[in-house]
């Protein structure tokens, strides 16, 4: 029996992958041993991130880690991956939404339609601005060229932000060469981990979403070929990686706000920031109007957030 | 050489020359877009479309200009030995090795067509039959019938979200033209071997 | 198949294909595509094309046609003629002075374009005939022009450093600044070499005869004005860039525009000049783009088949070399590969393997970019495969034979190796300027 070999590519560059995926894959490889080995590749290494989905669907790459938005998956749920504005507040919201509020089923179905196995959804950090110049009001956002997610970019452009998408590994340099004024792609933990904190000066404490939604996927055919126990092992290792991220980000966000020295913190007053939150709800309705599936997901977001609101502290304050 | 072949070589040379000479001027489009990008950034609000537009123009520039650059002989070769051979020997060797080039271009073309089909919403494994269906639908049922065959149109994962099929059409056509030019080069080499003129 | 075998097989078949003399991009592309088809498994055939999408997203490449266009406008429109006159009159009286002046000319031209082709063209068409007429040694001047023009890729703007920046993911601004002092140093070393040689063997570079030296001081000063244009073009492009007002790609467009406008204002933008610059820019840009496309495909297949990891292992684990030994070995392998491989292909294929290793060993990647560029300069001149060699062969007058061309580069290549060693041993030569400007 020869070793099953998979190639897996992540949306993350090497520095970030070190935390968000490599430990899980190393664990898997160690346990699976001669039976199966997964070779991990980083952002744009084998195929550009924009081609990730198709490469997986065709079997050029066997498995992928990404949010739906970055890899432009041709599904109804794509806009919700990455950062859907204000859909979540804490990283624990994501597993609840997927496991308890029914998003898992919707995702599984949507991806099965296009020949891809949705293995597991995981949660990441909140989405903040890291910029060269300080942001103290909504007016400061005007004209800023910012690396961000496609959907977040669409949403933010109403505040004058100019969203730019570039290969992940090029971001740091693009900030230095003037292609970008800043980044709205992650929380502060990543800013420090991947080096963006070295090229930007300010961190805006307001976020446009509390947690990122990202997934592990596999080519459906290759997934089906795996024996049951390897499927289980793979899914378990991926689930385990979510746990690592929960504490790594949660602790990192707080720790770096308190002890970080590379970025100054600024805030937009809550009253002003409310405009953004209100705009987000309009945006939700626009998206819901696009298709029944999207309407269903937006409905779930609404229900979940209403429930959290009713539950009160510590789920929601005010 | 048979008349068809001579006709082919002449037609392809002409076609690619014309296309290449049009592509040549795209450099001004590129300069224009980039200068507009810096002007708008300095004096107004930066635009969200300039960088991607420039990238699309660049693709058109080098892909459509490619066959013409072959005609101009600007694709370097390592001429350690090649440089010393007679014209006939070069033609002999080239007429074999150009097949390798054509193989590469063929694989590129295959990839381009598959990727284009995907951009038009076809997720199956036979892109060529998809295009055949599309074509027959267009002939028999007009644009509406062809539109029916299309699926989820791929967009660039950016906030501007342009459709990707136009640039993929460009790539497919450009690579095909490259392939046709390479075939013309092969015929030219064979003519040289046979001591004829095309 | 073991990974080492795959690496070896892919590399050697690429070499074999190159030797047949087929177009470089075809040779590389073929090996990549064939390996993908045979060894990858499902979906391998898609990889060569997905390289095209990667290429599209590599935005710094947009600067390529811009810098090439700048170079052709400069050389075709003969803007450089005035510059040449300036150096001629000022340096002529010195022994070997015209050759020294040619180096000066090359430095200024280097500051206005990103490759060495423009310098080669200007050197071979303007300087070379004049030097030969003045009974300069033909071997000496052939070398001067090849070596001098290669400064085009070390002195900013530099296309090679842009390509390196993309692969090493390093800021172009710092890389360019890092090239300034090594570039000037190397120019100075050429000058010293020429001066000393001509002292020892005066007939290699005779001083201008008395009657040609009679130029009035007023006229001499007037000629100095020619030197302003390059500085203006350089400044128009670099100042907004270094200050962050315009991005790299925007600056390159501004530079191309500036060169074009200068040629128009000086009344040099004739129909032929326009036609040739456009056509040649397309031709050279296509050559580059197709090579990069093929090499990106090759590289992805090479990587996906595990060959990259195998080579890393070889360097670090199996041979157990120290960081400096690895570094020297890498430079040597670049020099050897550079003798018969296109530098861009070499960069796209090999650098993704070397650069992370260099970073992990704790070396500075800006500094390494300068080392790489100097190696490329050497590669441009060393037979059998070298761009400046090709150009020299195409442009040289009949009295300069192939043998002359080959011999001419020996002393200059040695000077370059010396410069390489100096920059290796004293990284400050490269790093001082970027560190100061960007206040690291
Ligand atoms: N890698 C290449 N294809 N280089 C082509 C250009 C070479 C030329 N000598 C220059 O620097 O201008
Ligand atoms: Na230069
Ligand atoms: Na060489």
Automatic annotation (TrEMBL), chain B:
Compartment(s): Cell inner membrane
Cellular component terms (Gene Ontology): plasma membrane
Cytoplasm is among the record's keywords: no
Record keywords: Cell inner membrane, Cell membrane, Membrane, Transmembrane, Transmembrane helix, Transport
Primary residence: membrane
Topology relative to the membrane: Multi-pass membrane protein
GO MF annotation list: transmembrane transporter activity
Domain of life, source organism: Bacteria
One protein family per Pfam: DctQ
Domain Tripartite ATP-independent periplasmic transporters DctQ component: 30-126
Membrane-spanning parts: 18-36, 48-70, 91-120, 163-184
InterPro entries linked to this entry: DctQ, TRAP_DctQ
Record-stated family: Belongs to the TRAP transporter small permease family.
Chain's role: Part of the tripartite ATP-independent periplasmic (TRAP) transport system.
Complex and partners: The complex comprises the extracytoplasmic solute receptor protein and the two transmembrane proteins.
Name of this protein: TRAP transporter small permease protein
Organism listed in the record: Antarcticimicrobium luteum
TrEMBL record, chain C:
Main localization (coarse): membrane
InterPro entries, sorted: DctM, TRAP_DctM
Topological type in the membrane: Multi-pass membrane protein
Subcellular location: Cell inner membrane
An annotated Gene Ontology molecular function: transmembrane transporter activity
Keyword Acyltransferase annotated: no
UniProt keyword annotations, A-Z: Cell inner membrane, Cell membrane, Membrane, Transmembrane, Transmembrane helix, Transport
A cellular component term, taken from the record's GO annotations: plasma membrane
Pfam families for this protein: DctM
Transmembrane residue ranges: 55-75, 87-109, 115-132, 144-167, 173-196, 223-242, 248-269, 281-302, 322-353, 365-385, 405-433
Domain of life: Bacteria
Residue ranges constituting the TRAP C4-dicarboxylate transport system permease DctM subunit domain according to the UniProt record: 13-429
Reported function: Part of the tripartite ATP-independent periplasmic (TRAP) transport system.
Name the UniProt record assigns to this protein: TRAP transporter large permease subunit
